[in-house]
Design a protein that fits this description.
The chain is α+β, with helices and mostly antiparallel strands. It contains twelve helices and 15 strands. The strands form four sheets. Strands 5-4-8-7-6 form a five-stranded antiparallel β-sheet, with helices on both faces. The protein has a five-stranded mixed β-sheet with strand order 10-12-13-15-14. Strands 1-2-3 form a three-stranded antiparallel β-sheet, with helices on both faces. Strand 7 and strand 8 form a beta hairpin. Helix 7 packs antiparallel against helix 8. The structure holds adenosine-5'-diphosphate.
């Protein structure tokens, strides 16, 4: 066997010869492309060599090693931290990212028990979840707060043949953001709640004030009327005019109080919602406005209207205020025209009350929906400046909208929407 002359086999042979001690080793015989398990024993007259062909086993282990190396490369390169434990929770794998996140070297972790190494996790959600993962042979995903490291981890636990494969990543930043968002949200809710409360208080105040004002007002006006009746002959013209002014004043005040009461009630009372044929409701409203319609010779153009599910009083008040304004603020050129139209989409109805009256300057389009905002003196047009504020409340009560499109001198179109799903409001 000349090939053995310069080989590891020869080296071992020399060594045994020298030390007189047996040797055992694995040897690759290149000439035959075979692996041998060799044992050399010294004997009195030479050596005894036992050998066994282990090529097959060698090939298999090499392939296995290769596979492990590959798996390691993958596990090391993933951005998640990864550890594997056996069924007794002893670490059998620990990648670099896991070393970083858990601040422990792989050498110190491998072979150690999870609960000894991280005893603070014992009895936590993590233990619970791992147990479930084992027991039900299922993937478990959960967030875990690692107190000593002050980090939040998102953990995925997969059952495997050997035990558990556990992936985790640091979500502390996300958690903080989420907490900040939740805090912001709860602050906002608190703010909305306070606002709602103070609105309610304000409404309550307006209601009580206007309600209580009615009584003394009635007294003033009725005594004025009495004064006028009883002492008419004894009073001069000036006194008569003063009394008339006072009576006028009380009448205007009565109107303001009635409107204020309407405003504080609008949209806050638990009106019952019902199916309404708007054609019928509109006819009712028009009959109330009949005298001013005929006095001004108003030309009405009304589309056939739909059925809605809403509050009857709210609907009547809406149409009454908007059509009333269209008549009141009409041009004095005679024969004003008022159109009532509507469209719809999947979610809502949209109504339009269009006039060809005096119009409104662009800069006042928002202001007019505020309480007591009027663009004219009472001598030009009567009114309290509450009509549109009431309308706004009535439509917003069920998440509708109201707005105006108008140009000074060219007429106005008032739009409002009614949601179709008021059933669930
Ligand atoms: P009021 O009519 O009692 O003054 P509103 O709240 O109904 O109060 O209206 C507020 C203001 O908006 C009115 O004073 C008027 O100047 C303006 N306005 C409302 N409707 C119209 C309209 N159809 N055309 C022109 N101006 C209008």
């Amino acid at each position: 066997f000349p090939q053995l002359k310069k080989s590891v086999f020869k080296d071992y042979l020399e060594e045994v010869k020298r030390t007189r001690k047996p040797a055992q080793f694995e040897f690759y015989y290149e000439y035959y492309d075979l692996w041998f398990d060799e044992s050399i024993y010294p004997s009195e007259d030479g050596f005894s060599v036992y050998y066994k062909d282990i090529t097959k086993r060698k090939i298999i282990t090499q392939a296995l090693e290769e596979a492990y190396k590959k798996e390691n490369e993958i596990l090391e390169s993933i951005s998640d931290a990864f550890v594997a434990v056996d069924k007794e929770y002893n670490f059998i794998y620990f990648n670099k990212k896991a070393e970083e996140l858990l601040q422990i070297k792989k050498e110190k972790a491998i072979g150690k028990n999870m609960w000894e190494l991280f005893n603070y996790a014992k009895g936590s959600i993590a233990e619970n979840e791992y147990k479930k993962s084992f027991k039900n042979n299922e993937t478990r995903i959960f967030d875990f707060y690692n107190e000593p490291l002050n980090t939040w981890l998102n953990i995925k636990s997969f059952p495997s043949k050997k035990g558990l494969s556990i992936y985790f990543r640091d979500i502390t930043h996300e958690k903080q953001q989420q907490e900040e968002l939740e805090k912001l949200n709860s602050d906002l809710n608190e703010y909305a709640r306070k606002l709602e409360e103070s609105n309610k208080e304000l409404e309550q105040f307006a209601y009580i004030a206007s309600h209580d004002l009615q009584e003394p007002l009635r007294m003033v006006s009725s005594f004025m009327v009495l004064l006028k009746k009883k002492y008419e002959n004894q009073l001069d013209d000036k006194a008569q005019t003063y009394i008339n002014f006072a009576v006028d004043g009380t009448e205007r005040m009565r109107k303001i109080i009635v409107d204020l009461l309407d405003f504080s009630r609008a949209g806050t009372e638990h009106e019952s919602l019902e199916k309404l044929d708007l054609n019928e409701e509109l006819a009712e409203v028009l009959s109330l406005l009949h005298s001013s319609i005929s006095k001004k010779n108003v030309d009405l153009d009304i589309q056939e209207l739909p059925e809605v599910y809403y509050s009857k009083t709210a609907i009547r008040q809406l149409f009454h205020n908007l059509i009333g304004n269209a008549i009141k603020y009409s041009n004095n050129n005679g024969n004003p025209k008022i159109e009532i139209k509507w469209t719809e989409n999947k979610k809502e109805f949209q109504f339009e009350i269009k006039d060809d009256g005096i119009g409104i300057d662009r800069k006042h389009h928002e202001k007019i929906f505020q309480i007591f905002q009027r663009l004219h003196s009472k001598s030009e047009y009567s009114g309290t400046g509450l009509g549109l504020a009431i309308c706004k409340k009535l439509v917003e009560r069920y998440r509708g909208n109201i707005w105006v499109k108008s140009q000074l001198g060219k007429g106005s179109s008032f739009f409002f929407t009614l949601q179709k799903n008021t059933h669930y409001a």
